[in-house]
Write a structure and sequence with these properties.
With 399 residues, the chain is α/β, with parallel strands linked by helices. It has 2 domains: 176 residues, FAD/NAD(P)-binding domain; 161 residues, FAD/NAD(P)-binding domain. Strands 1, 2, 5, 6, 7, 8 and 20 form a 7-stranded mixed beta sheet that branches. Strand 14 and strand 15 form a beta hairpin. It is globular. The N and C termini lie far apart (46 Å).
């Protein structure tokens, strides 16, 4: 096995595979390798549908070997450390690998210890997460007979920011079909200030929330799960805006101290806290301080590392101010590819720029979806061709 490669890619998820395929297509002579330990490749966007009983989990898996582009070397190994001053990285079993150009796209990791009690709660029959085990989510929805159905997400960045509410809309439909919706209080508790950051889509989603009779709780940051008592604790981050309703409220929440809200649950779905993989966090590529600490530092338009000109990052691992989605990678990968190929020729960056495009296909029920496309600064960026035929900010079957 060659220890040196023209381009070395870390991660064989959407970002790594797409970048490798496009590089190889444009320059077939490249000596290109991908480092990734996993034997499985999952199509995770379908996990929302798995959790709602509308898709088969087994169909979301393929052998990793089957998706590695032809002519690309797959090094099935773990990266342990980066040594960018020597254009090298170290692996668990394959030793040191060197490169002319490095593309970092290992995704992110679930931090199951980021909320007190979360790891233990996921072993109980009432608590689930599509991010961890979507088949269990469907079992939990089927077993739900009434009470509080609580859906929440952490204050950390997460992959597919719309996923925690998508499963809630589908669950609401599932409860209706099962005849238990009248006995249920459906709650969406978010650390954010709004249901969605882009106004056109937020307007539609608020109509969905109101139509379905869902309790929206903003500025609720989950900090603890007491699975013995079946209670979730939130840090209420806007306690200066007035009081939480504690008397006669339908979800039976109560205030402990000035800023902790305790809410009982009969089922609970949440996205776990998420972070960059440890080998990125502890590397020279990561932000060392500030709100993006631990995530990979890149220029938000060129995706080039600010201190190592031959290093690029894309996908969930990078700290850019947009949603972490496969749709974002679809626009990021061509920018990385053009920049790497142009630098090989001229040591200069190309004119290609990433403007922050991302997309959340927000399933609002069985057979209904809003296609939220946007770019940096929460500016709507809907596809101009699609928009000739349909308003993607409205719920439609065609989407």
């Amino acid at each position: 096995m060659s220890k040196h490669h023209d381009v070395l890619i870390v991660g064989a998820g959407t970002g790594g595979i797409m970048t490798a395929a496009q590089l190889k297509c444009k320059k077939p002579s490249l000596n290109l390798a991908i480092v990734d330990p996993s034997k499985d490749h999952y199509y995770q966007p379908a996990w929302t549908l798995v959790g709602a009983g509308a898709f088969d989990f087994k169909a979301t898996r393929r052998d990793m070997a089957s998706v590695i582009p032809q002519g690309v070397t797959w090094i099935q190994d773990f990266v342990t450390t980066f040594d960018p001053d020597n254009n090298a990285l170290n692996t668990k079993s394959s030793g040191t690998l060197t490169y002319d150009y490095l593309v970092v796209s290992p995704g992110l990791q679930m931090d199951l210890d980021g909320i007190e009690g979360l790891r233990e709660a996921l072993d109980t029959p009432e608590v689930c997460s599509n991010y961890v085990d979507p088949e269990k989510t469907w079992r939990v929805l089927q077993n739900f007979k009434g009470g509080n159905a609580v859906f929440t997400q952490p204050a950390t960045p997460i992959k597919c920011g719309g996923a925690p509410q998508k499963i809630m809309y589908l669950a609401d439909d599932a409860f209706l079909k099962a005849g238990v919706r009248d006995n249920a209080e459906v709650v969406f508790a978010t650390p954010g200030s709004v249901i969605f950051g882009v106004k056109d889509f937020a307007k539609t989603l608020m109509q969905v929330i109101n139509r379905k009779g869902i309790h929206l709780k903003t500025f609720y940051n989950p900090i603890k799960i007491d699975s013995a008592k079946k209670e979730i604790h939130f840090a209420w981050t806007q306690s200066d805006t007035g009081g939480v309703v504690t008397e006669g409220n339908a979800v039976r929440e109560k205030l402990e101290g000035e800023t902790t809200v305790v809410m009982p649950y009969d089922m609970l779905h949440l996205a776990p806290p998420q972070s960059a993989p440890d080998f990125v966090k502890q590397s020279p590529f990561a932000h060392q301080e500030g709100p993006s600490k631990g995530w990979m530092e890149v220029d938000k338009n060129t995706l080039q590392h600010p201190r190592y000109a031959n290093v690029f990052g894309l996908g969930d691992v990078v700290a850019v101010p947009t949603a972490k989605t496969g749709a974002a990678i679809r626009k990021q990968a061509p920018v990385v590819v053009e920049n790497v190929l142009t630098m090989m020729k001229s040591s200069q960056l190309s004119q290609a720029r990433y403007e922050g495009y991302s997309s959340c296909p927000l399933v609002t029920g069985y057979g209904k979806m809003v296609l939220a496309e946007f770019k940096y600064d929460n500016v709507r960026d809907s596809d101009p061709f699609l928009s000739k035929f349909v308003d993607t900010a409205k719920e439609t079957w065609s989407m």
